[in-house]
Structure formats: structure tokens, C-alpha cells
Amino acid sequence: MATTPNLRVRPKGNNGLVHEVTPDSARWTYVGFALHKLDAGASAGGSAESDELCLVLVSGKARISVDGVDLGELGERMSPFEGQPYAVYVPAGSIWSAEATTALDLAVCAAPGQRGKYPARVIPPGTHALITRGKGANVRHVTNILPETDPAHSLLVVEVITPGGNTSSYPPHKHDTDNLPHESFLEETYYHRLNPPQGFAMQRVYTDDRSLDEALVIEDGDVTLVPKGYHPVATTAGYDLYYLNVMAGPKRTWKFHNAPEHEWLLK
């Protein structure tokens, strides 16, 4: 059996393609994630091939085109902590390009797609309402970017802001068993940012039998891989945490199972 890869992926430098998680590098099947950090005037692009993509403007502005169709200059927030994002759905088989018109952090979320079924589209801020979940020190603020109610083949994308000192993805939950309608199997990545950026957070990824049990120190720009198991997050006092989640699996639905010993926290 293949060993589990390092679940904490550090960025490769400060410019250009700083993250490139693929199913091969993560040793799984469905989810891919890339992050481009571009100066104004620089560009990125590629072919979606057999994957569908969701381009998320984490911060900054860019002129984006899909299959030669100019979608215009998109983006308005200069930080992931300043409101909701612009995003673009890119169908499988399409060619996309992005030219940064300001400093730009562009996430490329990927999962298996279906050619010819869903057209390219812009997903502007306000498409989905901001949701506040939890109470007390478990409050976090959620923006669905590409939820299961929106058209796509397998990709699910959401971003979350957790205020300093709070927990998130908590009580611990998992989605690693194909047992619908009770639980769905979904691989997941977390792309983390902190405000101010010198802060840190903690994330634990573990299974019931503890065959996987890793506690990770998360710094600004890190990616966490969640191949299976529970995956709670806690940020430290004074430092707000942003994360962008990408999920995909054999069925496009998010059905999770809470750790039973911690479900009392929901009462």
C-alpha cells in the first residue's frame, strides 16, 4: 500500500506557479489544486483537458478568457479577507487564460469533468449569500462558490473565514465513505491564508482507528491535503484564518459524518 504523502504542502516561492497539487502528487483520484501568484501584466493559462475547473480570484484583478471568449476584467477584492470573490467555471476540454491587471492570487480548482455539458460562466460576488455557522468560539463565515446546487460534474468549491481564536471544520467531521445518503466520499484540499500573515493555525487530520493521525502547524499560503478522516482547524488569537476548499469524489454531494464523541457540542 502506498504511504500517505506529506499532508502539509508549502508554497514553492513567492511568484508564478507556487502550488500544483495533482491526483498523482496527492496519491488520490479526483481533486487538483494550483495557485498562481502574478504581478500586474503577467499571465497564466492552460487546457482543462478532461477536468472541469473553477478559477477563483483569491485577491486582485485579471482579464480572463475561455476558448477565446473575453469575459472581461474580473475581481474587486485585494485581500481574501475583504468580501466575496469572483470566480469562473471552465468546462472540461476548454482553453483558459488570465492576464493580471493588478497583483493577483489565482486559484485553479480541478476535478473530473464532462465535455460539452456545462458552459463557461462567471460566478460574481453575491451569487450565494454569506453564511455564518457555529456559535461562540466556533463561529466561522462561509461563502459557497460552486456548491452541489449549481451546475457542474464533480467539483465543489467553498471558502471560509474563521475569526482569530476560533475553531472551524468543527466539531470534527469526515466524508471518506461512499455510504449515501448518510455519508459521501470526497477528497479535499485546504488553501490557507492568515491575517496578519505572520500568524499560524493548527489542523489535525485523523481517522477513528488513528491509522492516520497528523497534527499540522499551518502558516500563510500552505495547502492541507485531506485524503480521509476528520480535519478540524483552529486559528490562534489575533489571527483570522481564510481557507479555500476544493472537494470531489464519485458523487457530487457533501454528506458528512460527525465524530460522535464531539457531537454534544452541537446541542
From TrEMBL:
Query: What Gene3D superfamilies does this protein's entry cite?
Result: Jelly Rolls
Q: Which UniProt keywords apply?
A: Isomerase
Q: Which GO terms describe its molecular function?
A: glucuronate isomerase activity
InterPro entries in UniProt: Deoxy-glucuronate_isom_IolB, KduI/IolB_isomerase, RmlC-like_jellyroll, RmlC_Cupin_sf
Report the SUPFAM superfamilies cross-referenced here: RmlC-like cupins
Would you indicate the residue range of the signal peptide? none
What's any GO biological process attached to this entry? inositol catabolic process
Per its UniProt record, what NCBIfam families does this chain match?
myo_inos_iolB
What is this protein's record name? 5-deoxy-glucuronate isomerase
